[in-house]
Amino acid sequence: MVVHKKLSHTMCGLLSFVLLLMCLSCPGDSSVTSGASPYKTAVLLPCPDHLNFTLRGLCVVTWTWIWKPPDCVKNLVRYESQQKYGSPNWEETKINPHLNRTEVVNLNEGISFRVRAKVNSGDNNCAESSWCQIYIRPPPGNPETAVRNFACILYNFEYINCTWDIGNKAPANTTYWLQYWQSDVEGVQNCKTYIMKENKVVGCQLQKDEFNRELDFNICVG
Question: Pfam families recorded for this chain (predicted)?
Fold first, then answer.
């Protein structure tokens, strides 16, 4: 399980297509007379802009974006977002009014994320925008060199032993390191006591004063 410190990513501007939507006349618009069509000129509803992400710790990603609604949008705007790894299908759909989303993710795989604006159905003005998408590439290297059979065991709340086997295609002289992070600390912590077997690093021991057992424990071995 390797997390590359410098995540390469691609930014998207507007998608190459936009969804052409009709907007009903806004309340108080004197340009629509009785008996006339309730629709105004077609409005191009753009996808959210400036889609970006920040990484906290080892696996917490916050996606952020900006969206300026057309003048005819008066009611609550919500944002539908989805993410996926290698699957062709989008997963973990969330809809809320916030211009951000935070998730604990697996950075060993490439992650695609997309978002679009949706206007409250009670507002008869506009419907939804097109999608804006961003991609975080997986870390470089051969996945077959990653550790295998990784496991952590807590012993009597005194210490944690995390152990692993070397990767199937890792060179014989490969040396692994372990980092961990919890939400109550400023930065990523490094293992201080490694477990050795036949002159190879095969684990790490963390004492009780090195972690908070009440919080999630995020670990990276590379």
Answer: Il13Ra_Ig (PF18001), IL6Ra-bind (PF09240)
CATH of the domain at 74: 2.60.40.10
Count up the domains in the chain and report the number: 2
Mean pLDDT of 19-32: 29
The whole domain housing 172 covers 143-221
Asked if 181 and 5 touch (Cβ cutoff 8 Å), the reply is no
> Could you tell me which residues come within 8 angstroms of residue 25 by beta carbon, excluding any fewer than 6 positions away?
31, 32, 38, 39, 40, 72
pLDDT for the residue 121: 53
Q: Are residues 54 and 135 in the same domain?
A: yes
- For the beta sheet containing 100-104, the strands, ordered from the edge strand earlier in sequence to the opposite edge, are 49-56, 60-66, 100-104
Indicate whether 7 belongs to any domain: no
Secondary structure class of 121 (helix, strand, coil) = coil
- pLDDT tens per residue across span 158-171: 999 999 999 999 99
Q: Angle CA(95)–CA(96)–CA(99) in degrees, nearest 5?
A: 115
Burial grade of 154 (CB within 10 A; 0-12, 13-18, 19 or more): middle
Assess whether 129 and 176 both reside in one domain: no
Residue 122's pLDDT is 54
What's phi and psi for 143, nearest 5 deg? -60, -25
pTM exceeds cut of 0.70 = no
| CA–CA separation, 84 and 215 (whole Å) | 26
